[in-house]
Amino acid sequence: MITVNNLTKKYPNQVALNDITTTFPAHQTTAILGPSGSGKSTLLRSLNLLELPTSGEMILDDLQLAFNQVISNQTILKVRQQFGMVFQEKALFTHLDVLHNLTEGLIHVKKLTKAVANQQALKLLEQFEMTELANRFPYQLSGGQQQRIAIIRALAMQPKYLLLDEPTSALDPELEAQVLRILRSLAEQNTSMVIVTHNMAFARQVADRILFIDHGNLGYQGDTENFFTSDNPRIQQFLGAMTF
Question: Which CATH architecture group holds 23-52+73-82+160-244?
Answer without folding.
Answer: 3-Layer(aba) Sandwich (3.40)
